[in-house]
Design goal:
disordered N terminus; ten-stranded mixed sheet; about 35% strand; alpha+beta; 11 helices
Amino acid sequence: MKKLALFCTILFVMFTIIVTFPGSGMVTTAEANTSGLYDPIIKVGLYYGNDALPSANLANEIGSGYLFGFFDSQRSFWQTGWTAQEKITINKDKNMYVLSGKYYDSLPPSGALTIGAYHIDSGTSFATFDEAVAAAQALSASTGIQAFPAYVRGEHRVRLGSYTSIEKANEAAAKTGLQGATGVGGSTTCYTVTITSTGEIIYEFDAGSEAFLAIQPTGAAYTETWFKGYRYAGAFEYRRNNGNDITVINVLPVSEYTKGVLPYEMNANWHPEALKAQAVCAASYALSNRTKHRSLGFDVCNTTDCQVYLGRNAANANSDAAAEAVKGLVLTYNNKICSTVYHSSNGGSTESAKNIWGTDYPYLQAVPDNFEDLAKANNGIWTYEYTSDEITWILQTKGYDIGKVVDVYVDEYTPAGNVYRLAIIDSKGKKLTFEKSAARTILNSSTLNKYTHSQRYTISGGIRFNVNGGTDVIAAESYAIGKNNTVSRLSGRNDIYLISSGGLSVLKRNTDSFIVSGRGWGHNVGMSQYGAKGMAERGYTFDQILSYYFTGAVVRPNSPDLS
């Protein structure tokens, strides 16, 4: 009771200092932080698409309780309700079942608690959330049916019970004797909040397609919320895209997001200047790619498709200090925030974005890199042996029409010494070429556990041979003139041939394998993380590191006018 009384006092104070509109209050905005640095709000997709969830558990173990509401188009949070509960579950408005703390949207084995998607609406709206709470308590006592507050299309309402069909809800509504009471439920834009591991409903939210449920932890100056085994700063937003399962989004300032990216993209114990460079990259990349997942309702994802972001679990004092030191800073080129891509290592030179992805960026140009210590890098030096049959299988499983592969070779290098074009030839002379990033990824196979890890590699083996010290000749593409002017196609079976008066003869049969040897790890564009480490250990500052890897780019404070 003491905790609840204190919580209500805090809320009362909050209500005296915020601007309100009917049924809601604006609690936070995407404004500059207290240090005067511009620190915009970013939305990070945690579970979405095929990974969307029927329910999501939250545990506020640093603070106490949550605010319910929604984010407007300016990413300000508008409060519609609150709870002092510290462990809650957000469910889609569908019949749900709880068994051993897990939630299901189909019936699990016997013994599960049922959370019905249908309820009784009391037929009355209320001016405030607190009025709805008081009415719910009174209705619970008078009807014997659990009642709870709800926010429905701009109104505070009270709903009762949970039923598995609209018919059962209407039948129960008639028995209450409440004027205007009716069965409701099954909305594709509705969310039900329960106390975790129970069927007890404490709140319902349905603003139609105009707004989505958001939940903000409270009770401390700084809060962290457990979700799916990870600790997250900030708030959460829930969307049911196309009425399906729940898309879970973490909503937080860019500076806090950066602290969650940094230890997953770079060792948190590395030199502070390297970590600072990585932190600026993390913030700049996210801000420059804010439209990447707009159709799903968030800015960036939490995987390698964007940047790895798993909240606060791996952060330490060293990584947090580095991120805090460059808070509010971004890398820019001509007053635009740079898309600050990075890679683990490159083996000797970065590469221009044009030669990897086809689009030219003035700040993503090839630069020589002598700062990496590949011996200490994560598999910075690597070699894989492929058989002809393995490469044939890899290509065929990826949908390419090719026969038995007889030769694989680098057809063109970039001026920086990275692979630009890879050629593959089958026994009938068919030639496939793969350029830019495809030259790095085409031979990758998780089944065989063999990969071309970097854009910087060489290939040995195959069936090429030298003619009079000149250009290599590919047997599968070549012909021999024999006795009586007969023309024979070379079979391309790893053979070397001799033409004599007796005709065409096999001189030598080479091994049926190809050795791919490389240096570096990644696409080679932008900043090398091991290079940044090496530069930091040699006395370079974070801005000098960034200036080296991003040609002509400048570190500056973020501001609303930067795009």
